[in-house]
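Example 348.
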Amino acid sequence: MHLLAIETSCDETAAAVVTDDPRHGATAGMFAARSNVVSSQVDLHAETGGVVPEVAARAHLAALVPVVRRALAEAECRWEDLGAVAVTAGPGLPGALLTGFNAARGLAYARGLPLVPTDHIEGHVGANWIVTDGTQGPPPLPALALVVSGGHTELLLVDGDPASGAHTFERLGGTRDDAAGEAFDKVARLLDLPYPGGPPISRLAATAAVRRTRLPRAWIRGTDDFSFSGLKTAVAHLVASADAPPPAEVAWAFEEAVCDVLARKTARAAEREGVSSVLVAGGVAANRRLRERMRAESPVPVFIPPPALCTDNAAMIGAAAFRHLDQAVPPERPLDIYSTAMRRARVR
Ligand code: KG4
Ligand code: ZN
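Predicted structure in complex with zinc ion:
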């Protein structure tokens, strides 16, 4: 079956055609993205140094129809070939979510297709089940998943039902304040680097000639929680101090502190839970140093999607939707999206 997936939870307007059909590249337990179109609003938000929710929602409205058309065209897929429409229902920015959700719902209604509301975090995890050139999957379950992005830092236990292929998710912990990507973005601003801050911080850090500065780590012992706001404050003080090290060394010390905590806490939780693999996903999983540290610390094999499947995209939403097709709904049903704050309240 082919499904059309749509993602608009933050600042990327994305659509993809995903399939479980081996004739179109799917392998046992893995899915193939026949197209994966992402229209980024990064330039729009670079001016403000971050995402302005209403600006993001309006930009989705403008980009959605061309992005969906391109996703179908690149997949050489007709409406008749589709079996369902999958869409991100949350968590994310409410206005941004509503534009994609309603578009998906309207398309499903017009075409008589079921709608598969899908969780954005489960989508990031699902990216590990998409066939790519260097595919090593499917990852063995149970797995421990670290989802690190601009909006989320979550540690989840993922298990699967071998008969139905359905995945279950149990949240073990997450950030108590800033998300890991948000910390990269805020520290980038302190260092006069552009938005989004992850890639330029990483590039600058790689040039550090001196690597002595040590920034504080919040371990929050006895929990699987994280905290990055203290680290951001420490960077602010360091940058403002009279004997501030060069920006490259600050960037390096910051990246080390974030990657150290993420890799060691995830590895410890993986050992404790006795999982068979570790999955890393979300925009920050594109970070080279984090990939290195995860592989060095983890007691079990580490799976990380290629960078284009780590940052927000719709193929990952399609892959996750295949895991709960039984939860597809008729699009005319009263339906709702959920914001980041609503999801946090629900899982606690
Ligand atoms: O998953 P994503 O595209 O969107 C959200 O759902 O938030 O993640 C975007 C975040 C941004 O905060 C960005 O700075 C961060 O991922 N990011 C990185 C890197 N590439 C993107 N952080 C660290 N290193 C990178 N190479
Ligand atoms: Zn995301």
